[in-house]
């Protein structure tokens, strides 16, 4: 099976019923994408397929053959000279010191990056709605909201928890 | 400043160190492997410092000394009838050390694990402060059990910064003093003429005269450290690093997917394991066979040992392992099929075995003469649910066991593995990884033993990662509680007597030998937060330890959330009976003591932050609650109630905390925010129960967590009452959340809910 992940092509001999999450993590070693629940509730396994955020734990591999798959490892851009520029969402998550344990953060960041690509100037309400499908057990919600709003280049409406 | 992890040969998925911009930092050439097996020497008081000479030079280690630990244990058991003597032994090896690297940076090796609480950063700040070196010249390394560093306590209880602070400052100051003395000899200048610049000392007046730290290490011949009383520690007003919101060292790796957790561990030729699980709480394995798993694609090994209740499978992919273990044939004796009503009947705070943990005056006598106000509060089972399920990679070869695992106690994991294998503990090496959340659940290490058993059987490294349902059903839970509170007021609206009868199953005692009950009396984990901190002349708190068929244990804050919900809800009920404002009522009952003063300062601070004296926005109401231990917390929750749907919305939680000296203010605030989310989730949503002999849990469908859509805004203030040392911050702010929300609900509706969680059904019931 042919896969394109983070711009690289892979040919894999994997059972058809294998889910994208485990192919990324266990077959390719891209462990930045996390397993949380396996049933599409928590969002820790979120990756981009053709730019849209999807839950890789539910995604049969056959369904993404030929698609453009992007994971957290491929979200930052690398220049010809090797300089790495973080995606604005990644940078904003550092600026706001968002992660605690960090396990959900790849999923949060991929969800936010996809959301902002589709809605570059969201209201705070839209941000909360878009991010409410991603669990954060450490409870970093205040900072995730602020960081996504900042990444969108929007003025923070309200100064909270500074 | 960067994070280092213990690296092992052949590890594929090693985390790459990154600098603050997330860019990869090339390992400095010749970074020495941490030397093993030093010789440690105690300083005169047997408390502070061991020094060792080794290949890479000098190292200074620090104990979490007996005085510090005992102080904390005594605090956590304040009022207990039995003392703490003999509970924690002074470790024979230090749990952290400092060492000069070949490039003259200084490496801090420590046992405390990073699970999101920011402990690697805050402990490094303490070291950098007393070493007097720049932040970028300090390297943090997570130690594994093959180092000389031993930490039998583990990472938990909000103790890490508090226990490290004193010893680490002394160790760092000792290291600085040793290097300075040697620099003075090498540079032929008095010590007072020297200052630290970069990674060495220079002569202040002629900075071209310089000695790098590593060059000094080679020159040091005397290992006499100054005794601690001779070391000059910095005064708080000289601090440059402590008290600063330094950026966390682990965050760059966590936003780029590079941080490596137990579930992420990989080595070449590794296989995947899965283990059959008992279908009920009391199930015992009767027989097992491979069944259809034997012929399944990818299956490498079936491992069955009925006597120890073990049936597992090893396969070449995780999916194959998970499918195969379901295809095995297992027969279980299911035992008694428990129901929730039976469990609840067991939690009665009544009958024999109650242990009085606080008694002043004669509460029973006074309450017997009055018509007391009485109320009963309940909390349910809850799961910790860190989003990273339990996971370990084990490699058993030539009688040596190596395990990489998400654990809050690598020493406990090491001991349990050695016990399970019947081998000497020094043949077991446990390497802690980053944790994708712990919250108490990862003091358990069953998954590491499973991985090791399967690895031994198949002769290859095996990774076992539990799925979500396994994680919910087969760990330990927060125990259910029942608290009966009674109180009476005098004619002036003052509390004259108060009694708290508390029932819970085990928290700490689940993990301790049976004799601990004789030593400690009540389970300090189950009873934390149960005491009455207010100035009440007649008060009694009695705890009943109840045995349940469900494994209960550590959970964020231990019993703090449930107990504070009960006590602080009841204080509001007394305030209402007295016709008093809940804030003023609390202020009027503060003890005339330093502790009472701190409670007052924190209550006043939260009142100001929340605008307590002003009317809340239309449709909303406020509730206040407070908890005092070493760390003092007060919160005001602002809620609204939808009378149609029964939904409570928590809009805002204001929180004031005095946690003593604050090492990293932004990190402290992050802990407040996380604790508030935990508290709101437990107040409104989270509950587990038993049905037909098993926990009725099936992934997040049956146990949803709080989402951003339900999350309150959180505002916080750190209150300085002049305490010079740090106290815990990872758990105390969870305490008041339930009561603050419940008290706000009552303020909004005039009704009270005394059973958690406050679900829409319970709200509609209360409003009916």
Kindly list the characteristics that best describe this protein.
heterodimer, A: 162 residues, alpha+beta, Ubiquitin-like (UB roll), DNA polymerase, domain 1, 2 domains, five-stranded mixed beta sheet, two-stranded antiparallel sheet, 30% helix, disordered C terminus, B: 768 residues, Aldehyde Oxidoreductase, domain 4, 3 domains, seven-stranded mixed beta sheet
Q: How many domain regions of chain A? A: 2
Hey, roughly how much beta strand do the residues of chain B contain? 15-25%
The tally of strands of chain B reads: 29
> Percent helix among the residues of chain A?
25-40%
The main sheet of chain A orders its strands as 2-1-5-3-4
Radius of gyration of chain A: 16 Å
Number of domains of chain B: 3
Shape of chain A: globular
- Main sheet record of chain A: 5 strands, mixed
Oligomer: heterodimer
């Amino acid at each position: 099976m042919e896969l394109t992940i983070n711009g690289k092509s892979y040919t894999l001999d994997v059972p058809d019923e294998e889910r994208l999450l485990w192919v990324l993590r266990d077959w390719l070693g891209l462990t930045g994408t996390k397993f949380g629940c396996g049933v599409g509730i928590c969002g820790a396994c979120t990756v981009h397929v053709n730019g849209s955020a999807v839950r890789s734990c539910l995604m049969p591999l056959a369904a993404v053959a030929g698609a453009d798959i992007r994971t957290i490892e491929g979200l930052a851009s690398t220049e010809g000279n090797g300089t790495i520029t973080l995606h604005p969402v990644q940078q904003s998550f550092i600026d706001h010191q968002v992660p605690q344990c960090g396990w959900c953060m790849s999923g949060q960041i991929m969800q936010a990056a996809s959301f902002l690509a589709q809605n570059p100037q969201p209201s705070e309400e839209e941000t909360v709605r878009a991010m409410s499908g991603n669990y954060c057990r450490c409870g970093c919600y205040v900072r995730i909201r602020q960081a996504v709003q900042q990444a969108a280049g929007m003025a923070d409406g309200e100064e909270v928890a500074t | 400043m960067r994070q280092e992890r213990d690296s092992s040969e052949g590890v594929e998925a090693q985390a790459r160190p990154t600098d603050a911009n997330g860019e990869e930092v090339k390992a400095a050439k010749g970074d020495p492997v941490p030397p093993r097996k030093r010789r440690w020497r105690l300083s005169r008081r047997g408390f502070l410092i061991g020094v060792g000479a080794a290949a890479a030079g000098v190292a200074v280690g620090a104990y979490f000394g007996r005085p510090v630990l005992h102080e904390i244990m005594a605090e956590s058991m304040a009022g207990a009838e039995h003392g703490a003597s003999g509970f924690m032994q002074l470790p024979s090896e230090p749990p952290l050390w400092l060492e000069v690297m070949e490039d003259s940076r200084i490496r801090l090796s420590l046992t405390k694990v990073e699970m999101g609480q920011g402990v690697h950063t805050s402990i490094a700040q303490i070291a950098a402060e007393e070493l007097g070196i720049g932040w970028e010249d300090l390297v943090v390394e997570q130690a594994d059990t093959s180092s000389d560093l031993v930490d039998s306590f583990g990472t938990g209880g909000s103790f890490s910064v508090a226990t490290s602070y004193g010893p680490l400052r002394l160790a760092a100051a000792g290291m600085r003093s040793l290097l300075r003395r040697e620099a003075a000899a090498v540079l032929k200048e008095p010590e007072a003429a020297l200052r630290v610049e970069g990674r060495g000392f220079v002569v202040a007046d002629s900075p071209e005269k310089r000695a790098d730290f590593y060059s000094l290490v080679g020159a040091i011949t005397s290992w006499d450290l100054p005794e601690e009383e001779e070391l000059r520690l910095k005064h708080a007003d000289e601090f440059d690093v402590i008290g600063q919101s330094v950026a966390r060292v682990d965050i760059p790796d966590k936003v780029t997917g590079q941080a490596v957790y137990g579930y992420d561990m990989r080595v070449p030729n590794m296989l995947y394991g899965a283990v059959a699980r008992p279908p009920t709480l009391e199930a015992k394995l009767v027989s097992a066979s491979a069944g259809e798993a034997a012929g399944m694609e990818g299956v490498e090994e079936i491992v069955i040992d009925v006597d120890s209740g073990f049936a597992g499978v090893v396969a070449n992919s995780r999916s194959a392992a998970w499918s195969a273990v379901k295809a095995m044939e297992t027969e279980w004796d299911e035992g008694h099929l428990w129901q929730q009503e039976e469990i609840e009947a067991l939690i009665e705070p009544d009958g024999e075995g109650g242990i009085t943990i606080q008694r002043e005056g004669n509460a029973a006598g006074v309450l017997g003469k009055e018509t007391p106000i009485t109320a009963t509060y309940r909390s349910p089972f809850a799961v910790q649910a860190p989003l990273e399920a339990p996971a370990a990679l084990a490699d058993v070869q030539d009688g040596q066991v190596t395990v990489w695992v998400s654990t809050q106690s690598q020493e406990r994991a090491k001991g349990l593995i050695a016990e399970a294998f019947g081998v000497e503990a020094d043949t077991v090496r446990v390497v802690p990884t980053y944790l994708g959340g712990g919250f108490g659940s990862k003091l358990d290490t069953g998954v590491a033993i499973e991985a090791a058993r399967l690895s031994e059987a198949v002769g290859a490294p095996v990774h076992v990662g539990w799925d979500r349902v396994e994680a919910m059903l087969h760990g330990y839970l927060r125990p259910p509680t029942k608290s009966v509170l009674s109180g009476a007021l005098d004619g002036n609206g003052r509390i004259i007597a108060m009694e708290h009868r508390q029932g819970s199953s085990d928290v700490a005692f689940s993990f301790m030998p049976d004799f601990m009950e004789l030593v400690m009396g009540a389970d300090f984990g189950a009873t934390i937060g149960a005491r009455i901190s207010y100035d009440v002349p007649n008060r009694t708190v009695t705890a009943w330890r109840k045995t349940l068929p469900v494994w209960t244990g550590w959970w964020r804050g231990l019993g703090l959330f449930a107990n504070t919900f009960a006590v602080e809800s009841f204080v509001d009920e007394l305030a209402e009976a007295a016709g008093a404002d809940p804030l003023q009522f609390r202020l009027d009952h503060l003890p005339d003591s330093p502790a009472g003063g701190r409670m007052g300062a924190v209550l006043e601070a939260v009142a100001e932050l929340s605008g307590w004296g002003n009317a809340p926005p239309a449709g909303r109401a406020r509730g206040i609650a407070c908890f005092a231990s070493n760390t003092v917390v007060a919160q005001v929750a602002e809620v609204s109630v939808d009378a149609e749907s029964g939904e409570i919305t928590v809009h805002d939680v204001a929180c004031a905390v005095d946690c003593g000296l604050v090492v990293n203010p932004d990190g402290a605030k992050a802990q407040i925010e996380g604790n508030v989310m935990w508290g709101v989730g437990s107040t409104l949503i989270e509950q587990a129960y038993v049905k037909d002999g098993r926990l009725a849990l099936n992934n997040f469908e049956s146990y949803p967590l709080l989402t951003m859509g339900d999350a309150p805004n959180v505002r916080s203030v750190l209150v300085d009452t002049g305490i010079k040392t740090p106290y815990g911050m990872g758990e105390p702010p969870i305490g008041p959340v339930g009561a603050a929300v419940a008290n706000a609900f009552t303020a909004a509706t005039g009704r009270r809910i005394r059973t958690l969680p406050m679900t829409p059904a319970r709200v509609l019931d209360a409003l009916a």
